[in-house]
Recover the amino acids of this structure.
DNA sequence: AAATATGGCAACCGCCCGTTT
DNA sequence: AAAACGGGCGGTTGCCATATT
């Protein structure tokens, strides 16, 4: 059972089936800190897994918005139709399904059911009775106790800092740079966060800082909040900037506030 | 009842691509 | 410019449950 000892020497990375404890750790970590870097998250959450393994587990199984249960006749037909035009592009097919299936599930379902159905197409007029479709792990996401979430370890200090040399804030949740943050967001050498002519003094009081930051990040002109997927969309790129639900209520952002407290010395 | 075959699916692997250093 | 890195994708494997012999 010797594994590669190429670069890192620490605990050997685990493979294979996920234990309930690992699931709980990953879910709790993501619930508290969101997704920012799979490799670092894995370490920070205390998981002896590769980032890829964590991502796979989350995307295909733990995510609260995935759907499980039997495929409906409509879903089957849609998959077959899409497969005619898209081929084995399972992620593209899954994305076009309204039901929230993962590409892995679509792929598995194709190989185990639909290939056969296509073969026996002429004779088969059997319809699959749609079962009640339940969200994948939504229950365990919602029911995760506060203590479980809070038990998720604190982020490493090394990733909770301002990197002045690179002009970025590196938060426990997600690196924020001039490209990922609001337009023209940057940390100036003059100890200010600058955005569209609005300066926030890093040395201002805690309350003032938070208020200004909140005001800055809620400007409708800079970006907006589309309801569908809880993501903050930039006006120019039309691509997600960061997850909206982390910022929509500062009550939820005690980690961020705590980080700001430590960073700016307002406690 | 035990042994073997088959099916279903979670998870891994290799490759690729875009971004960063 | 190129190496390194992170993440996404599709093919495939391997484990476990069920069916069949």
């Amino acid at each position: 059972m010797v594994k590669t000892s190429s670069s890192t020497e620490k605990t050997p990375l685990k493979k294979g089936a996920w234990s309930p404890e690992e699931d709980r750790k990953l879910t709790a970590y993501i619930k508290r800190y969101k997704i920012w870097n799979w490799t670092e998250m894995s370490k920070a959450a205390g998981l002896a897994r590769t980032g890829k393994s964590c991502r796979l587990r989350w995307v295909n199984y733990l995510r609260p918005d995935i759907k499980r249960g039997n495929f409906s006749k409509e879903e089957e037909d849609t998959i077959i139709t899409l497969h005619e035009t898209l081929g084995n592009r399972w992620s593209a097919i899954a994305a076009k399904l309204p039901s929230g299936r993962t590409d892995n599930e679509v792929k598995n379902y194709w190989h185990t059911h639909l290939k056969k159905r296509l073969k026996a197409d002429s004779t088969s007029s059997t319809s699959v009775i749609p079962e009640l479709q339940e969200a994948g792990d939504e229950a365990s996401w919602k029911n995760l106790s506060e203590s479980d979430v809070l038990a998720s370890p604190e982020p490493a200090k090394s990733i909770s800092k301002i990197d002045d040399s690179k002009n970025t804030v590196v938060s426990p949740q997600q690196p924020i740079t001039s490209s990922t943050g609001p337009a023209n967001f940057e940390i100036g050498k003059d100890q200010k966060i600058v955005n569209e002519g609005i300066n926030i003094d890093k040395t201002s009081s805690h309350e003032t800082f938070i208020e200004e930051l909140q005001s800055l990040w809620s400007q409708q002109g800079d970006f907006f909040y589309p309801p569908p997927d809880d993501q903050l969309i930039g006006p120019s790129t039309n691509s997600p900037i960061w997850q909206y639900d982390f910022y929509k209520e500062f009550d939820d952002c005690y980690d961020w506030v705590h980080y700001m407290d430590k960073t700016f010395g307002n406690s």
Q: What stands out?
A: The beta strands of chain A are 161-163, 168-170, 175-176, 186-187, 192-195, 198-201, 231-233, 240-243.
